[in-house]
Each structure stands twice: as structure tokens, then as C-alpha cells.
Specification:
Elements lengths: L1 E9 L5 H9 L7 H6 L6 E8 L5 E8 L7 H8 L4 E7 L6 H12 L5 E6 L6 H14 L10 E3 L8 H14 L11 E2 L2 E5 L3 E7 L4 E3 L3 E5 L4 E9 L2 E3 L1 E3 L3 E7 L11 E3 L7 E10 L6 E2 L2 E7 L2 E9 L4 E2 L4 E12 L6 E6 L5 E9 L8 H12 L5 H10 L6 E2 H8 L3 H13 L3 E4 L2 E4 H21 L6 E2 H8 L3 H9 L8 H10 L9 H4 L3 H5 L7 E3 L2 E3 L9 H15 L8 H6 L5 H13 L3 E3 L5 E3 H17 L2 E3 H8 L3 H13 L3 E4 L2 E4 L1
Parallel strand pairs: 1-3, 1-4, 4-5, 5-6
Antiparallel strand pairs: 2-3, 7-16, 8-9, 9-15, 10-14, 11-12, 11-16, 12-13, 12-15, 17-22, 17-24, 18-21, 19-20, 19-23, 20-22, 23-24, 25-27, 26-27, 28-30, 29-30, 31-32, 33-35, 34-35
Helix pairs in contact: 8-10, 11-12, 11-13, 17-19, 21-22
């Protein structure tokens, strides 16, 4: 069953509540003070079902809003989620101040469908009614209500109601259904406690679906809440879908923790923000709006105070528009394309509104770059993939995770993946696990890494490569982006020419570029060192790069190795060996590091280094000893090897670590 939310709008005492009651049989005035004073103070709700033009059933939820100027803030809390407005004008009074303000609010909130209802038509003659009709037509000319039906009714005498219902059905049948597959959001407009049930909230489900027993998160508080029960238009249901008036019985939360303006949404998916970038429009009747002005900000059921920071101008003239950042005095859950209204700080009058473009604006970004991004976002002709690409590119070499992109763009996963597949196919972005990064940016990252490694080799000719973590920190990259740079072709990042060639040949961005993609042989492709790096263990180096030694360094390396090889297990102190070399201490130490890395020398303790051949012979000796006795103590070990205790203890501890022996008390078991 298709659900449509209908909101009333219009001046005080023009018959909005009476009209809703005549259409539904439900009195939307629920407060005693409303009945006593005869005016609507807060939001009222009613519902009805009608048959559509094709026989299908249509479910209408009515939101009755107050018309008094003092309660416009309550009115704003009700119209944010409506699909269709009934602009109510009393035939005996015509267009009044709140008629104009409510109409402006509907336009600013992006409402595109409505019906003008001339109430109290029984109080005027036909000629007067026609004059009012002409006045209304002239007032709405050029707006979304220009060609909308104008229906005279009398709620008291029930005249015109059948025609109004027919028009409601006709207009509602043309409306697209709200997206029940979108990310769920329920702005809360009422909070109360019901005996036997506990805490209950109501609201218009603007997107997605809510099932009984779902877990949702309360924004901005962050608390996770279980849905104990669901009601739709007053009847229990297993679920509510987008476009329905919804009541939820909540578990695990007190009424005192909730208030109008909060939003329920899926846990850990969306993020609140206290800064939003917007396209802001000013009403022709408003005063000029200066930079840094304070305003009242209204969106869905939420309201707060905001400071307007204009981009590229010092003020907006009446009827003008500009990009701006709204700095809110409290965090609000918003997504791109959400609408809002601003009211003058004092006196409180509706002065403008607009559309959210970015609910996660980046700090410290150049003005020209920010404006370019906002122009892409505001253009309704730009497809999802164009807008998503802008969000990925503005993160430069930091990249953006899929989860972050969902939170920023507000698209459900399936819609997001569809757009990303287009970008991947065109090779505009690269995806590494959950990370998304612009393909050309990744190329630049690879060039930067290559340059850093080449520089390291020039400064450290005696070192095989730079430690991976040191390279990442020097390049100032996140671990994810750093790994992505090595993920294409197992350490190969394509050049711009290779990327262009691959695009022509249809290679996908999620695949390493093989030799045939560039028209080169495998050997030719692998011999493009400017865009390749190798990772050997924990070291990164240029392909095929080896240690470059001068004659004196090569001779010193040979001297070190021979000193330990000839010593057997009675090795000299390393510092003594290095002191006898002709090269400086720094280069000598690098030669030792090289010998240790190649496992020519093995460090047994902080002070003792042995040649690998000597340790290999020791293992063989222990294997022979095991045939005679499976156990050996320190004394027997000294006799076997001919070394003093200075060498015996460190060697036995080394053998324990290598699982050649295992200590049991004062003895070792030869394994």
C-alpha cells in the first residue's frame, strides 16, 4: 500500500484542523489548551485510506500544523517530511501573513506538490469566491502551486470534500514512492510514555524501513536502542516503511533522554555534524543577510542556532543566493540534498533556506577548491558517480573508506556500489580493500615513494633498502594508502602512460596492469624502474638494487668476515675488529648490518657475534654428542667446544632460543 504524508499550511483560524477532521473523522487537536483556546498550538496527526485511480489503496497520513505566528517553529517541525501540502486559505479572508510565510517555507523545503483549499466557502457568495480564486492564482503564479488544483470546501457543511478527495488521490497517484531501501531515518516529533508500554516516539519515516526488534541509534546522543514495537497510523505492524507516520515503542531508554529533533538511524553508519556546507537562498521580502549573521536553523523536526559564514561574498541580497557554511550550536544528523529553513534571529521571521550539499566539510581547504566541489554537488544533472568522485578526490592521498563515503553521501551500500563500479570501470579510482583513492593520486604517491627510495639509496649506498615503516612515515601516508601503492602488480604502480594505454585496452582498475595491457613484453614492462619498487621482507628498494661498495669498503667487509670466520667460537670483540679498519665507524657499522642481514654473521648476544659456519659446526657437534648422551651441562659444553664461560653461557642461551637445546634445571636436553 502506497503511503503519502499530507501537511496542512495556512493562516491561523483558516480551518486547517476542521478540514483534517472532515477528511479523516479524527480531531487532530490533542491538547486541552488547544481545545480551550480553539487554536492549534502543536502538531496534530490523523490518517485515512482512499482508493486510487487504478483501484489500489492509498494510505494518507495528515500532519496538522499550527497557523499562529507564535507557533511557526512547531509548524516547521511538521512540514519537513511531507510529500504533499494542503495550502489552506479561508474564502472569507483570503491570503494573510501566515499564508505567505507558510507558502515560503514549503518552497524553501523543496515541496513540489500540493492543492490549494479554499475553506469556509459557504460563508461567501459565488462572486467573492471567484475573486479569491483569482487572487490565489495570481499569488501562486510561477511557483510549484501554479497549476495545482484549487478546491473550495466547507468543512461544516461537508461540501467540496468529495472533489478534494479525488484531487488528493489524483495528485498522490503521480507521486513517486519514498525509497524504503535508503538509509533509515526517523526524525522524532513527539515523545511520551504510554501505560503498559513505556517510552514511545513518533515521526514521519523519511527514508528506509524499521522492523520490530531492530536496533537503531539515537542521534546526536549516540545511544543504541531496541525497537520493542511498531505502529503505523495507529495500528500495530511488523514494520514501517518510508512515507508512513510511525510510532515506535522503545526499549532501554527513558523519556527524559529523548526530545523532539532527535533522529533514529542505523547504528554506526551515519555521523552528526555541527558544520554544514549549503546552497542558501534568501526570500525577496527578507533583509540583506550579512556574513557571520546568526539565524535560527530548522530542518525536519530539529532546530538550533547557526552562524552563517558566506563563501565568496560579504552578504546575500534579498532574493539572492550563495554558497555558505552554517556553523550550528549543536550537532545535527543531516545528509546531502536535505532541505532547511532559516529564520531571522530577532525579530524571528522566516528569511530563507536551502539545500545541504556537504554535511562533512573538510577543514583547511582552499576556497576555490571548496567552491568547485560545491558546484558539482549542487548540480542536479550530475550523476552519483560524478559526485562521489569529487568526494574521493578531495581527500587526495589520504583516500576514503567505503564506510566514510556512505556516511558522507548518505547512499545505501547497493546504490554506492553501483556508482563505484562505474568509476572503477573507467579507471578513475582504485580500490584496495575498503580504501578508495583517485587513480592519478595513487600514481603520484608511487612517484613520491620511488623518489624517496632513490634518495635513500644515494645517501645509504651500503644499505640494501629502507625499512617499510620508515618509508611510510617519511611519505606521510596512512597504512592503507601505502599498502595500496604496492598492491597493483605486487609492488608495481603503473605510470600515466600505462594507465592511458590500459584504458584504451579496457583493463579494469581493480586488476594489476599486465605486460599485454601496455603492449610491452614482460621483460620490457618489468624494466621500467621509474615506476617500480620491490619489497624484500621489511625493506623497500629499487628493482635489482644491490649494495654499492667502494674498493676500501669491499676490502673492509672481507676483513670483518675473515676475522670471525677464522676465530671459530673464540670470537674477538666486534669493536676491536671495527677499530682496525681503514674506513670510518659509520660505514663500518653498515657493513656489519649488511653481513648480519645476509646471515653471514649471527648476533648471539649484545656483545657477541659469530660466523654462521662456526655455529653450523657447533650444531653438528651437539648432534654427535646426543648419540653419546642426550643431556649436557655447562662444564661438558665447555669441554666439548673448548670455550670459556664467557662464551659458553651466551651460546647455550642462543641454542635454547633456536630450539637446539632445552634447559632443564642446570642441564640442557639436546633436542
Amino acid at each position: 500500500m502506497k503511503s503519502i504524508i499530507v501537511g496542512t499550511a495556512g493562516h491561523i483560524d483558516h480551518g486547517k484542523t476542521a478540514l483534517v477532521k472532515a477528511l479523516t473523522g479524527i480531531d487532530a487537536d490533542r491538547l486541552q489548551e488547544e481545545k480551550r483556546r480553539g487554536i492549534t498550538i502543536d502538531l496534530g496527526f490523523a490518517h485515512a485510506e482512499l482508493s486510487g485511480t487504478s483501484g489500489e489503496r492509498l494510505r494518507f497520513g495528515f500532519v496538522d500544523v499550527p497557523g499562529h505566528e507564535r507557533f511557526v517553529r512547531n509548524m516547521l517541525a511538521g512540514v519537513g517530511g511531507i510529500d504533499l501540502v494542503l495550502l489552506v486559505i479561508a474564502a472569507d479572508e483570503g491570503i494573510k501573513p501566515q499564508t505567505r510565510e507558510h507558502f515560503d517555507i514549503c518552497r524553501l523545503l523543496g515541496i513540489r506538490h500540493g492543492i490549494t483549499v479554499l475553506t469556509k466557502s459557504d460563508l461567501v457568495d459565488a462572486e467573492t469566491l471567484e475573486v479569491v480564486r483569482l487572487e490565489v492564482e495570481d499569488f501562486f503564479r510561477g511557483s510549484f502551486l501554479e497549476n495545482a488544483p484549487i478546491v473550495p470546501v466547507s468543512s461544516l457543511k461537508a461540501s467540496g470534500l468529495d472533489e478534494l478527495k479525488r484531487q488528493l488521490v489524483r495528485v498522490a497517484s503521480q507521486l513517486p514512492a519514498r525509497d524504503s531501501n535508503a538509509i533509515t531515518r526517523l526524525p522524532i516529533d513527539r515523545v511520551f510514555t504510554m501505560k503498559g508500554f513505556g517510552t514511545v516516539v513518533t515521526g514521519t519515516l523519511v527514508a528506509g524501513a524499521i522492523h520490530k526488534e531492530d536496533e537503531l541509534q539515537l542521534f546526536p546522543a549516540g545511544k543504541k536502542i531496541r525497537i520493542r514495537g511498531v505502529q503505523v497510523h495507529g495500528a500495530s505492524a511488523d514494520k514501517a516503511v518510508a512515507g508512513e507516520r510511525t510510532a515506535l515503542n522503545l526499549a532501554g531508554v527513558d523519556k527524559a533522554e529523548l526530545e523532539r529533533g532527535m533522529v533514529l538511524a542505523p547504528p554506526e553508519m551515519l555521523r552528526t555534524s555541527s558544520r554544514i556546507d549549503v546552497k542558501l537562498s534568501l526570500l525577496p521580502s527578507a533583509r540583506p543577510l550579512k556574513n557571520q549573521s546568526r539565524v535560527h536553523f530548522h530542518t525536519f523536526t530539529s532546530e538550533c542556532v547557526a552562524t552563517v559564514a558566506l563563501y565568496g561574498t560579504k552578504q546575500i541580497e534579498p532574493g539572492g543566493e550563495a554558497f555558505a557554511q552554517l556553523r550550528l550550536d549543536r550537532p545535527v544528523l543531516l545528509l546531502p540534498e536535505d532541505h532547511f529553513v532559516i529564520r531571522q534571529f530577532s525579530p524571528v521571521l522566516t528569511v530563507g533556506g536551502g539545500t545541504v550539499l556537504d554535511a562533512a566539510p573538510l577543514p583547511k581547504i582552499a576556497a576555490a577548491e571548496r567552491l568547485e566541489f560545491l558546484k558539482i554537488e549542487v548540480d542536479p544533472h550530475n550523476p552519483d558517480e560524478t559526485k562521489l568522485l569529487g568526494r574521493i578526490r578531495r581527500r587526495r592521498d589520504q583516500g576514503l573508506s567505503v564506510a566514510q563515503l556512505i556516511a558522507e553521501a548518505g547512499h545505501p551500500a547497493d546504490r554506492l556500489e553501483t556508482a563505484l563500479s562505474v568509476l572503477l570501470q573507467k579507471e578513475l579510482i582504485y580500490r584496495h580493500g575498503d580504501l578508495l583513492i583517485d587513480h592519478s593520486v595513487l600514481h603520484n604517491v608511487a612517484e613520491r615513494l620511488h623518489s624517496l627510495v632513490a634518495g635513500f639509496h644515494r645517501q645509504n649506498p651500503l644499505v640494501t633498502g629502507i625499512p617499510k615503516e620508515s618509508l611510510r612515515e617519511e611519505a606521510k601516508l596512512s597504512p592503507q594508502v601505502f599498502e595500496a601503492a604496492f598492491s597493483i602488480g605486487k609492488g608495481t604502480v603503473p605510470s600515466r602512460a600505462e594507465i592511458s594505454s590500459a584504458r584504451l585496452s579496457g583493463t579494469t582498475a581493480n586488476r594489476a596492469l599486465p605486460a599485454h595491457a601496455t603492449g610491452k613484453s614482460a621483460s620490457q614492462s618489468a624494466s621500467t624502474p621509474a615506476k617500480h619498487l620491490e619489497m624484500i621482507g621489511d625493506l623497500v628498494r629499487l628493482p635489482g638494487h644491490g649494495v654499492v661498495m667502494k674498493d676500501e669498503e669491499a676490502e673492509s667487509k672481507k676483513t670483518i668476515e675473515q676475522a670471525f670466520a677464522s676465530a671459530g667460537l673464540k670470537v674477538p670483540a666486534l669493536k676491536d675488529v671495527l677499530a682496525g679498519l681503514t674506513i670510518d665507524k659509520t660505514r663500518a657499522q653498515k657493513l656489519v648490518t649488511l653481513l648480519l642481514r645476509d646471515k653471514v654473521l649471527i648476533k648471539v648476544s649484545d656483545e657477541l657475534v659469530f660466523h654462521q659456519a662456526a655455529l653450523s659446526d657447533l650444531r653438528k657437534s651437539l648432534a654427535t654428542q646426543k648419540a653419546q648422551s642426550p643431556k649436557i651441562d655447562v662444564g661438558k659444553f665447555k669441554d666439548l667446544t673448548g670455550v670459556s664461560r664467557k662464551y659458553a653461557i651466551p651460546l647455550l642461551e642462543y641454542l635454547d632460543r633456536e630450539r637446539v637445546t632445552r634447559r632443564v634445571g642446570d642441564e640442557r636436553v639436546i633436542l
